[in-house]
């Protein structure tokens, strides 16, 4: 087992290791006294893992109840949140009870936000079962639901008490969902971890304890420096300005991970075109991205993507912050005039 300590406003551990899922009850007992436990999960994950988690929590003295929402982004809604809050209140959960997020980023974001507002905050534990949730969404305390006006527009910074990440649970993931998350793993390498990138090139599985732990350490380091996203946490948005535009232009037919893969390649190619990044690094990125089953190009034009990008919430006034790779393992924040976004994209598209 690898333990990663996160020293955010709340201090907690991220435990990464095969076989930890079965020990979730005893591991949680080390940080939370036995209490009632609402396990929030979705209808794909419930039949696979909910009974086993309930059994493990029961054996450790907790009193679990399973609450299942439909799978998919649609469950990150005010409607689902409202029903969940009413359920907690109706069943008289108290501030010493806890919630458990069992599933991917959808369940994790919804559970965290619900835990942050129910009775002004009750403890919650993350048990991520997608690679994306293991390496990204379960760590760092960003929680949210979507509004009609856009994704993640209502949320809170609220840290979990514990994250239990068992790579064995990733074996049931559909291959395309697994490949999608690999884009975020590559992202950490390009941001500031050349060694992680090389491990992936050497064929170490993105689902290995080693790789997951390394991604979590990277995210932890950024979150500890900028928990509330006022500066360097934006580095984690590498490839995402282009990605969000691609998702929007495709009417969300292109998945987030695929869009991030294309976005990361696009922004590095734009950096290469301006002499900021070596061509050899772009070749390596193209090769690893393809090796992990992800796309590297799309059919949208620079103007179309720029227009979509500028309606994104990350735009601040007349400028936009891009994350620019100067090399694999050396990405930097770069503020550019909004008017230049189209030119950057044009340089980056193949
Ligand atoms: N909070 C953050 O910092 C943060 C960071 C990145 C992404 N996110 C959010 O995360 C969400 C995406 O997360 P995701 O990619 O995990 O999607 P997801 O939660 O929708 O899971 C993807 C699919 O995999 C299924 N699934 C989950 N675990 C499984 C398993 N072990 N076996 C079989 N099927 C399984 C789910 O039912 C779902 O259908 C988005 O809403 C995004 O906004 C949040
Ligand atoms: Zn992402």
Could you characterize what this model shows?
The chain folds into two domains: 2-172, Rossmann fold, CATH 3.40.50.1970; 175-348, Dehydroquinate synthase-like - alpha domain (Dehydroquinate synthase-like, alpha domain). The chain is 44% helix and 21% strand. The protein is built from 13 helices and eleven strands. The chain has helices spanning 24-29, 46-59, 78-90, 105-117, 131-137, 175-192, 194-201, 209-225, 240-249, 256-273, 279-291, 302-310, 341-348, and strands at 2-7, 11-16, 36-42, 63-69, 98-103, 124-128, 142-147, 150-157, 162-165, 319-327, 330-337. It has a seven-stranded mixed β-sheet, with helices on both faces. A two-stranded antiparallel ribbon has the order 7-8. Helix 9 (240-249) packs across helix 12. The chain is globular. It binds nicotinamide-adenine-dinucleotide (NAD) and zinc ion.
Name its key features.
350 residues; alpha/beta; Rossmann fold; Dehydroquinate synthase-like, alpha domain; seven-stranded mixed β-sheet; two-stranded antiparallel ribbon; 13 helices; 21% strand; binds nicotinamide-adenine-dinucleotide; binds zinc ion
Query: What CATH architecture of the largest domain would you give?
Result: Up-down Bundle
Q: Name every ligand kind in the structure.
A: nicotinamide-adenine-dinucleotide, zinc ion
Helix content: 40-55%
Please compute the radius of gyration using only Cα atoms.
Answer: 20 Å
The average pLDDT value, as a whole number, equals: 96
Count of domains: 2
**Uncertain runs with pLDDT below 50, 5 residues or more?**
none
CATH class of the largest domain, named Mainly Alpha
Characterize the overall form: globular
The largest sheet, given as strand count, sense and whether it forms a barrel, is: 7 strands, mixed
Order of helices and strands: EEHEHEHEHEHEEEHHHHHHHEEH
Ends: how far apart?
Answer: 42 Å
How many E strands? 11
Task: Label the structural class.
Answer: alpha/beta
Strand content: 15-25%
